[in-house]
């Protein structure tokens, strides 16, 4: 067993050293469900390597077991009783000994390591696992999902064919503790410990993969200390030290805890999260109480297929068009955008584009050089009654794990001086290119309105009021996606656009 552990340690050391020499790039896997397809391929590649590795090892085991059987291995050390047996022993130790040394020195893992290293640049980074954790946290907080249900794959009372193991619960708990979500961190850790105990026979595997049972005790003491339950934290550490007295990390944690107790360090304050209308409208479809209406819209472009329009709000103006994009056009748009998807960015206070932690999505810009986009431009003009010559290109977006866009405004909010030279975004059109089984609504908290994605529909609203200033009631969010892949296409319409002829 010691030899096997030594080989595993050597194997892991080779991988770690090699990975350290390889530059890891940020692929932002957690920001797009579509890109998860690449990770599935990489995981199959890795699992095939491990399967081939075990097959090679099994062949060696079979060879050694056959030799032991051929020799007639017996733990009893008895003197040979005849010259034939004496000869056989001498021959084996003279000839077979050196061959076995050579055989055991051959390292079947070297080729496997080389193949694993080859895909190192495509592996997820610390940023990816952080964003994946954050996506799960958003899903849990926004939709008020019990921790135990999530761990068992039960989301909004729908049981999905998946669940989390002890290591995965530990990873979530550790990230939540890091981000001061302490109540949830304790819940995830407790569920993780229960799952660990249920699978105690695989403790060696968990330890080899970097999550020994002692790690749970250390993290629990850390969280209880942060919550101010220092006596409980000390009890946990003392129990752990009895079990693992050789663990230096436990002794250090105990010393830190004793220091915090002496100086009376204040516990961390709990973070607040958005509640009320936002959570309600992300969970259930919200509509204004006012009695509005639906109607058909026609124009020259739409003479053979009038549009079904539902009025959601008159002030600010907001409507949804049903069944306006065909399945064929949706497939074409997705195919055009898939290879151009990159991390979506937003304008910062300094006017520069940068990544926003409140926007977990990837986007691709499409212009009118494509036939289907020219068709979408005509359709948008027919729905809005605006020419689009000076507006921004269409942006197709695919959301990631817990795919989310925090509450924001589409208008750019220029000052009076800036507005003299820069146009603002007068209106927004969002085309829904996929159904989302759970979550993913577009919500306007100030208006008590939410729209759940329905493939082929389009949502349109005005961002500016009658004075041309940004209407702050239009603050909106893409609620976290729970299940499914959320695809949308957005068109921001410039206030410089001309008004076309009225609808017929």
Written description of the protein model:
By secondary structure, this protein is α+β, with helices and mostly antiparallel strands. It has three domains: 1-124, no CATH class; 125-273, Alpha Horseshoe (Serine Threonine Protein Phosphatase 5, Tetratricopeptide repeat), CATH 1.25.40; 285-494, Jelly Rolls (Sandwich), CATH 2.60.120. It has 16 helices and 19 strands. It has helices at 2-20, 36-71, 83-105, 109-118, 126-143, 147-151, 166-178, 182-198, 203-208, 213-227, 230-243, 248-263, 277-283, 327-338, 371-384, 416-419, and strands at residues 154-155, 158-159, 294-297, 307-314, 317-322, 342-343, 345-347, 353-355, 361-366, 394-399, 405-408, 425-432, 438-439, 442-444, 449-451, 458-462, 476-478, 481-483, 487-494. The strands form five sheets. The protein has a nine-stranded antiparallel β-sheet with strand order 3-4-5-16-12-19-10-9-6, with helices on one face. Strands 11-17-14-15 form a four-stranded antiparallel β-sheet, with helices on one face. It is elongated.
């Amino acid at each position: 067993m010691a030899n096997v552990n030594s080989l595993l340690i050597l194997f892991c050391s080779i991988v770690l050293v090699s990975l350290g020499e390889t530059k890891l790039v940020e692929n932002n896997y957690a920001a797009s469900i579509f890109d998860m397809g690449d990770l599935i391929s990489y995981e199959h590649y890795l699992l095939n390597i491990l399967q081939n590795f075990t097959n090679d090892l099994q062949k060696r085991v079979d060879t050694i077991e056959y030799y032991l059987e051929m020799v007639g291995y017996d733990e009893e050390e008895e003197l040979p009783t005849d010259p034939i047996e004496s000869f056989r022993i001498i021959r084996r130790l003279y000839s077979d000994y050196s061959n076995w040394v050579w055989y055991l020195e051959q390292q079947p893992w070297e080729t496997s390591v080389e193949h694993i290293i080859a895909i190192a640049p495509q592996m997820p980074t610390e940023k990816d696992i952080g964003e994946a954790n954050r996506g799960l946290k958003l899903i849990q907080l926004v939709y008020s999902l019990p921790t135990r249900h999530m761990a068992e794959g039960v989301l909004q009372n729908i049981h999905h064919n998946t669940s989390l193991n002890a290591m995965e619960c530990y990873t979530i708990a550790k990230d939540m503790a890091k981000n001061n979500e302490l109540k949830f961190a304790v819940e995830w850790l407790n569920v993780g410990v229960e799952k660990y105990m249920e699978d105690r026979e695989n403790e060696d595997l968990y330890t080899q993969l970097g999550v020994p049972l002692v790690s749970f005790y250390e993290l629990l003491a850390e969280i209880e200390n942060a919550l101010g339950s220092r006596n409980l934290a000390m009890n946990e550490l003392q129990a752990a030290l009895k079990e693992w007295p050789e663990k230096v990390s436990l002794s250090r944690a105990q010393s830190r805890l004793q220091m915090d107790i002496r100086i009376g360090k204040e516990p961390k304050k709990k973070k607040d999260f958005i509640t009320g209308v936002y959570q309600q409208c992300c969970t259930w479809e919200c509509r204004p109480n006012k009695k509005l209406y639906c109607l058909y819209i026609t124009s020259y472009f739409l003479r053979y297929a009038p549009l079904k329009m539902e009025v959601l709000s008159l002030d600010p103006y907001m409507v949804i068009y049903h069944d306006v994009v065909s399945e064929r056009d949706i497939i074409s748009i997705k195919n055009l955008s898939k290879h151009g998807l990159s991390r979506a960015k937003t304008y910062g206070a300094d006017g520069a584009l940068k990544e926003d932690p409140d926007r977990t999505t990837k986007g691709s810009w499409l212009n009118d050089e494509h036939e289907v986009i020219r068709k979408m431009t005509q359709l948008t003009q027919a729905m809005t009654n605006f020419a689009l010559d000076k507006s921004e290109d269409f942006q197709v977006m695919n959301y990631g794990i817990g795919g989310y866009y925090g509450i924001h405004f589409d208008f750019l909010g220029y000052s009076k001086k800036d507005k003299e030279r820069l146009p603002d975004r007068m209106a927004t059109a969002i085309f829904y290119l996929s159904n989302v089984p759970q979550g993913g609504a577009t919500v306007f908290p100030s208006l008590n309105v939410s729209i759940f994605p329905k493939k082929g529909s389009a949502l349109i609203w005005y961002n500016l009021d009658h004075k041309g200033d940004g209407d702050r009631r239009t603050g909106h969010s893409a609620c976290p996606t729970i299940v499914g892949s959320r695809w949308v296409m957005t068109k921001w319409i410039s206030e410089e656009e001309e008004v076309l002829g009225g609808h017929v």
